[in-house]
UniProtKB/TrEMBL annotation, chain A:
Name of the featured protein: Ribosomal RNA-processing protein 43
PANTHER family: EXOSOME COMPLEX COMPONENT RRP43 (PTHR11097:SF9), EXOSOME COMPLEX EXONUCLEASE RIBOSOMAL RNA PROCESSING PROTEIN (PTHR11097)
Alphabetized UniProt keyword annotations: Cytoplasm, Exosome, Nucleus, RNA-binding, rRNA processing
Species assigned in the record: Mythimna separata
Family to which this protein belongs: Belongs to the RNase PH family.
GO CC annotation terms, alphabetical: cytoplasmic exosome (RNase complex); nuclear exosome (RNase complex); nucleolus
Residue ranges annotated for the Exoribonuclease phosphorolytic domain, each copy included: 31-166
Entry GO MF terms: mRNA 3'-UTR AU-rich region binding
Pfam families linked to this entry: RNase_PH
Record keyword GTP-binding present: no
Major location category of this protein: cytoplasm
UniProtKB/TrEMBL annotation, chain B:
Organism: Mythimna separata (Oriental armyworm)
Protein's name in the database: Exosome complex component CSL4
Stretches assigned to the Exosome complex component N-terminal domain: 15-52
InterPro entries reported for this sequence: Csl4, EXOSC1_C, Exosome_cplx_N_dom, NA-bd_OB-fold
Stretches assigned to coiled coil: none
Range of residues in the leader sequence: none
Domain Exosome complex component CSL4 C-terminal, chain residue ranges per copy: 106-142
Keyword annotations of the record: Cytoplasm, Exosome
SUPFAM superfamilies the UniProt entry points to: Nucleic acid-binding proteins (SSF50249), Ribosomal L27 protein-like (SSF110324)
Keyword Cytoplasm: yes
GO molecular function: RNA binding
GO terms, biological process: RNA processing
UniProtKB/TrEMBL annotation, chain C:
Domain Exoribonuclease phosphorolytic: 50-179
GO cellular component, one term: nuclear exosome (RNase complex)
Short name of any one Pfam family annotated for the protein: RNase_PH
Cellular location(s): Cytoplasm; Nucleus
Organism in which the protein naturally occurs: Mythimna separata (Oriental armyworm)
InterPro entries: ExoRNase_PH_dom1, ExoRNase_PH_dom2_sf, PNPase/RNase_PH_dom_sf, Ribosomal_Su5_D2-typ_SF, RNase_PH
Taxonomic lineage: Eukaryota, Metazoa, Ecdysozoa, Arthropoda, Hexapoda
MF terms (GO), sorted A to Z: RNA binding
UniProt-listed GO biological process terms: nuclear mRNA surveillance; poly(A)-dependent snoRNA 3'-end processing; rRNA catabolic process; rRNA processing; U4 snRNA 3'-end processing
Name this protein carries in UniProt: Exoribonuclease phosphorolytic domain-containing protein
Amino acid sequence: MAEIYKLIHPVKYFNDYLSRKIRPDGRAFHEQRNIKLNVNSIKAADASAVVKCGNTTVVCGIKLELATPKAEEPDVGFLVTNVELPPLCSSKYRPGPPTDSAQVTSTLVADIIANSKCIDLKDLSIVHDKLAWVLYCDMVCIDNDGSLVDACIMTLMASLKTLTLPKVTYDPETEEISVDTSVRTKLNVNGLPVATSFALYKHEQSNIVLADPSSYEEEMCGGIGANLITCYNNGILCGSQKFGGCNLSIECEEEALKIAKERAQAVEEVVDVCIKNYELEINK
Amino acid sequence: MAALNKEKLKEMGKLCIPGMRLSISNKENIAGPGTYELRGYIYATLCGTLKIEQTESEVRTVSVESPRTPSVLPKTGDVVTAKVTVVNPRMVQCSILCVGSSVLVRPYRGILKKEDIKATEKDRVDPYKCFRPGDVILARVLPMTEIHWYHISTAENELGVVIATAEGSPQGVSMVPISWSEMQCPKTLVKEPRKVARVIPENINHALFPIRDNSTKELEIEADK
Amino acid sequence: MPLDYRRFNGPEDSVSYKRFTKGYLKSYDELYKESLDDKGVRKDGRALSEARSLFARTDMVSQAKGSSYVELRKTKVVCSVFDPREIPHQNEFSQLGQIFCEVKFAPFSCPRRRRPHVPDAEEKALSVALRKALEPTVCRHMFPNYQVDVFIYILENDGSCLSAAINAAGLALADAAVPMYDVITSCTVAIVGEKMFVDPTEAEENLATISPSTPINHGIITLSMLSELKQISDFTQVGSMDVECVVKAMDILDKECARLVPLMQKVLVANVLKCFETRKRLEEEANEKEQLLNAKMDEWKKLLKFT
């Protein structure tokens, strides 16, 4: 019965909840979903992480490759990030090339990572103008239940933090490359960017900010994906995007930024604890 | 865990999974929904619970009830809930949202031809005076003759518009039926013509699909196989 | 190769660092020795006839109608199934519904190389094999003119992908309440000479596909069964082997498939129990809401009487 009501009167159903100061899944407006994180569960990848924010599940795997750097930037390596939204993660997607929304998400994640300066691409250089690392980071969404960018950034950062680069020796005369996998160095990661998504909804003349929206809420708020995405790294704002939804008042924005800042700390803690546990386990 | 489940199981009845042999198929036992017949036996096709119904004297229908909406399509004769999308002089197009009491994950397209709107005076029906886009209607599924389009009919007193909003009224304010062909908005008092479904009981689906007393046979339950 | 404009691409000349590690290229004998030691124990400690333990669960993807997750140690497969939908570009009336299968490897799923984003021949072949295996299982006459989508995503490939995919698809279809004739189970065997590796890993599959210098039996066989009906729904064989070998392998696979049935049944029973619980909870909530609605209705009725 409730489902039928939701289908026939979608707006009324949503408003009914909001007027009682609760969201359809039982959360308060600013409450976020639980985060579950697991690192290095995929052994075929050089580093990997699985994150679950509520129902949203994203798997990230990193594959290492070697290549010659670009002639114009001989000291710089490559960080290639892609977000895949396969048709199995939601009924909205069809098999075939990436949809527009997948491309937008991909670009957004790449921008956030580039803007936060958490990875210095010079660290990926091995030999000037001859050899550099290529980090292929593929984030695959298994279950898309909203706030996709948050989950993508989180799993990407968790994988990057566990990534180790094997030692490479390059003979300049013979141009021979040899890799020693027994000696590995950790990749330098500066800080931990954390993205937080919000949905904005106009309800009875007032704006409501919903933190960590589910896909249903995102849809009701009239956007493909979240309406507002803000990203913090080390307490510094490194990206803020607004897509559709209702207009944003100054109070709402301040409110959202505060939540995002708090969340950044919480997520950092989760990632740190998870990686620490993992390192303890492998050192055993 | 097992002990805890036992009690729950008693309440639910016998569990079935696809391929499970349920009973002999003969004159007394007929295969119902969620089952199929093969070489004289009835087997389950769904995960769910076993339901045995005494339809007539001596005849029992064996069926499996799934806790989820079965992934099958609307069948001929089903009553469906649909939302009107297009109205033109010859027909009404709509998207089917629910079958009986179960919500469809994906809407299917339906067509309501002009002659299927009313049972009487079929030629003088004007679709505009019966439906408007956005109305929620109850209809019955007719035999399928076209791929991807379900033909539906509202030529019954109980079928027709159940929820409609008058022009100019705010979203979410539904009109109230005042006769079999008119509805009125309680807020703006605008009257609009519609093909109204006769009664709107508070619990539509319970009235249409009464939950029958399930005379489940007390069979041995294999809980933790 | 044409450039993929919809994704970020790395440099064209990039190669995996594993190519430059010691022992990248190994001879056939070395590979064989690595897979199986003198005592007949495999690299991961299993006996030849021992399959990996299967972990399976349903309800993996909240957005899908039905979904499942199957793990064979390192092989990890996610499957989701959606409600029937219209078949695009179809204009003929067909009595039987169709099953659309898509198998996709994650770019990081294979230990040897990075998988391309665009579908390759292996994925296509797996998709077709999966569709053929599922077609006899599903009651296709229940949804004429429509198709059911089955999507498989392989997160990590450590051999026996096809059988893991078939097992996962069977569970997901049952979870989605798609009518099926029977529970489907599947198993793979890799054959190298006289030895039969049940439930092979990726390295063992690789070994079985290399043709050795001396002509011996080698190849991979995947079999899927409908156990209650005693029917074989799919049989896929790659490689060359004699008839006795195939018969022997089928015997082994038959037993392995039967062994998996109780496990699948257990997962499905647990799934039904869980579904009933959620439904009960939803019903309670709905009742509460209905009461509220009724109260509101009365209010409205009173208002109407006044006017």
